[in-house]
Design brief:
Blueprint: H1 4-9, H2 13-35, H3 73-109, H4 111-125, H5 129-140, H6 144-170, H7 174-181, H8 186-222, H9 234-243, H10 250-277
Helix pairs in contact: 2-3, 2-10, 3-4, 3-6, 3-8, 4-6, 5-6, 6-8, 7-8, 8-9, 8-10, 9-10
Length: about 280
């Protein structure tokens, strides 16, 4: 029989499975220029629509086949992961920092601070997110920086609302009153006592936000509002693949699977971390 301590140490399957996939994607993104079998921009019209390696008519150097222009699908997926991971981490972390800081201030200090921040969140969330994002891209212009800025401007409210509710709940706990009696300042109580108990929730939201950032970048790439149309992106590959789905299904299927597994893994990884480290659940 497995002891209680060993059972607690065992990682839940969704945590290590999602972590394994995300690790592979990060590894691919970091080493894409060196592990890609071909130049993702190199076109060979004589090798157009080659099937994957296990299908008849394939070529050994094209493991996942080629698209309409003869570009290697695997190489384009690997280089597309660089853009997806960059957007996920930069936009996710910046959104988390801004939203968490404002949410903690609103929930803990209350009063006019809470009223101002809460009204700002309500006004911000009145705009449809997708339309707001497209409007920002139209104003800022296309490019990786514009996409990241648009995601941060739109999604900080998600962190703010959840963290505010959690900070408000934690500020009513007995340990907060004990810290005040012990002579802790309000800022020290917020950072040393309340923040550690909010951290698991913020971590789960951060992981979820990274998945959302990947989806947003893919949507903008799909409608040609992301970076240069020549650069390999998962959304751009999906847009190209849907045109020739009946002749070359792999051009659409493989980037779609990569996108789906990455977003799902970000979501499950965050939930697994919360279940593992949340002091209340433990």
């Amino acid at each position: 029989m497995v002891s209680g301590s060993a059972s607690r140490r065992r990682l839940p399957p969704r945590l290590w499975l999602s972590g394994l996939w995300l690790g592979l994607v990060i590894f691919a993104a970091a080493l894409a220029p060196w592990i890609s079998p071909h130049d993702p921009l190199n076109q060979d019209l004589f090798a157009g629509r080659l099937p994957p390696l296990w299908m008849e008519g394939s070529q050994p150097s094209y493991w996942l086949g080629t698209d309409n222009l003869g570009r290697d699908v695997l190489s384009r997926i690997l280089h597309g992961s660089r853009i997806a991971i960059a957007v996920a981490f930069v936009a996710g972390i910046c959104t988390c920092l801004i939203g968490t800081a404002l949410g903690m201030a609103a929930g803990y200090f209350g009063g006019w601070t809470d009223r101002v921040i809460s009204r700002l969140v309500e006004i911000w969330m009145a705009f449809p997110p997708v339309l707001f994002c497209i409007l920002l891209i139209a104003v800022l212009g296309t490019g990786l920086v514009a996409i990241i800025v648009a995601i941060i401007v739109i999604d900080w409210t998600r962190f703010c609302r959840v963290v505010r509710a959690e900070a408000l709940n934690q500020s009513r706990m007995d340990y907060v009153e004990s810290a005040r009696v012990a002579g802790y300042s309000r800022y020290r109580t917020l950072l040393a006592e309340i923040f550690p108990n909010i951290l698991p929730t913020a971590t789960a939201l951060l992981s979820l936000e990274m998945g959302i950032a990947v989806i947003v970048e893919a949507i903008l790439s799909f409608v040609n509002l992301s970076i240069s149309t020549d650069a390999p992106t998962w959304g751009g590959m999906i847009a190209e693949g849907r045109i020739s789905i009946h002749q070359a299904w792999w051009v659409l299927a493989f980037p779609l699977v990569a996108l789906f597994l990455t977003v799902l893994s970000f979501s499950q990884f965050g939930e697994g971390l919360k279940d593992r480290f949340d002091p209340v659940l433990r």
